[in-house]
Amino acid sequence: MLGAILAGGRAQRFGSDKAHALYQGRRLIDHVAESLGAQCGAVTVCGREELGFDCLADRPEAELGPLGGLNAALHHAQSRGFDHVLSAGVDVPNLPNNLVEALAGEGAAIAQSQPVVGLWPVSLSGALEAFLAKGGRALYGFADHVSARQITLAPPLLNVNRPDDLPG
């Protein structure tokens, strides 16, 4: 399993680099990396260069939203012999330790409240490449296209879009 931190956004609503914003005294990206690292054989950051991490450029180009990062991760995972990609946004610092177990099952699965958090078979790499080539950009659209299961996670995942979204 390859862990993929989808971090290519511009964080316009946040006003600064979300990945480096602090939550409980640590950067958001470090929270996500720790959680994915505990559940995956390797972790990569998609959509940006980040010192100390293996990084992938969005595929086939930048500015495609989370699907560009997911596409890069699926192709990278496939070329490295991984079966699945466990994805999460850089702005979801409270991922559960049993995320793989919660999302496991037939085909793809996404967190109902946070579709960027998902478990994706690498066999979907061609389907995502074709979806992007036809102009698809919405993560929910791709999830629907591949009949991804929507899983409710408890407690709810944080979604850090603005500084105010970070709990005190």
TrEMBL record:
Keywords, sorted A to Z: Cytoplasm, GTP-binding, Magnesium, Metal-binding, Molybdenum cofactor biosynthesis, Nucleotide-binding, Nucleotidyltransferase, Transferase
UniProt cross-references to InterPro entries, sorted A to Z: MobA-like_NTP_Trfase, Molybde_CF_guanTrfase, Nucleotide-diphossugar_trans
Transmembrane region(s): none
Gene Ontology terms, MF aspect: nucleotidyltransferase activity
Domain MobA-like NTP transferase, first and last residues per copy: 3-141
Pfam family, one: NTP_transf_3
Protein name per its UniProtKB record: Molybdenum cofactor guanylyltransferase
Source organism phylogeny: Bacteria, Pseudomonadati, Pseudomonadota, Alphaproteobacteria, Sphingomonadales
